[in-house]
Amino acid sequence: MSEIEPSEVIQAVESYVGRELRDAAQYSNREPFDQSGIWSLHQLARDIYARGVDDGTRQEAERQRHQQNRDRQAAKDARDV
Fold it and tell me: What are the start and end residues of every segment in region (Disordered) (predicted)?
């Protein structure tokens, strides 16, 4: 999996962490994140992003294979006419 966490993902995680820390300071029923928890959240976000990229890459490859098959069939059909 990718070791890269895109800037947008970093910003989303940090925004979430900021809200959670503000809520923890405001409400007695909230626990603040520690640095280890924040790091783990970044790792989770990175892994989810990487899986999405991998899935998208596989889906695009499948679409291209189907298009190539259609193109080959069309060329064959044109020769057979």
Answer: 52-81
**Is the alpha carbon torsion for 72, 73, 74, 79 positive or negative?**
positive
**DSSP secondary structure letters along 12-68:** HHHHHHHHHHHHHHH-TT-PPPPHHHHHHHHHHHHHHHHHHHHHHHHHHHHHHHHHH
Name the amino acid, one letter, at 61: A
Whole-structure pTM value: 0.63
Scan for tokens 């900021």, then name that residue: 18
Per-residue model confidence as pLDDT tens digits over 60-78 = 999 999 999 999 999 999 9
Using alpha carbons only, give the angle 53, 13, 48 rounded to the nearest 5 degrees. Answer: 25
Tell me, what amino acid is at 48? I
The residue with tokens 């499948």 is 62
